[in-house]
Amino acid sequence: GPDPEPTWAEREWHAQQEDQQGVHDDSTDPSVSAVRRNTWGPSYRAQQLREERLERQARASRWTTSGLHDAVTRFRTAAPCPVPDQSNGYLFRGRLRRWIQARDITCTFPGCERIAQRCEIDHVVAYPSGPTSHGNAACECVHHHQAKHATIPAIRRTDGSMHWTNRFGVTAERPPRPLLRGW
Q: How far apart are CA 152 and CA 148, in angstroms?
């Protein structure tokens, strides 16, 4: 019997192979002259088909440039939602812990790049005076956690930045980190 009609995926695969190899079968296309069939490179009709296919794929794409930029900007600037409830105990656990690690990304000491998953989560205002909540928490590597308790107190400002002051009055501030760098 006759060959079955090729599927959409098979047609796309063949079109891509033709584009890569520069070989197109124009022998059955009456609009292509015999001279054009014998020249090197893709035919005019094959180029048109390729452009049409690329336009179809672009229209079918979910993201436009402006839509992607808006989504990334929203993702970068919005707080991870919903904000988890505070804990009744001392330890930061489960969802609250993961939320704080996602927010801080690294140790909150300025210049420290230790990732938050390898940091300790500390109460900015000591427990039980301060609650076990996201607003009273900061990821600190072991070194800076110990330094905070020994000589370098820190406070979290309302904008999310961490303000550190050493015993000589020298201050350092770490602004809140965007979720994606380079934007």
A: 4
Entry field: residues in the chain: 183
| Distance, CA of 77 to CA of 79 (rounded, Å) | 7
Answer whether 0.85 is exceeded by the pTM. no
pLDDT means per 10 residues in the chain (183 residues)? Answer: 70 70 56 52 76 78 74 70 83 89 87 90 89 89 89 82 87 75 42
Q: Rounded to whole angstroms, how far apart are CA atoms 162 and 183?
A: 22
Contact 154, 108 (CB under 8 A): yes
Query: E-assigned strands of 61-181?
Result: 120-123, 137-140, 154-156, 162-165, 171-174
Closest C-alpha among 59, 80, 78, 82 to residue 70:
78
And the tokens for 56?
Answer: 């179809």
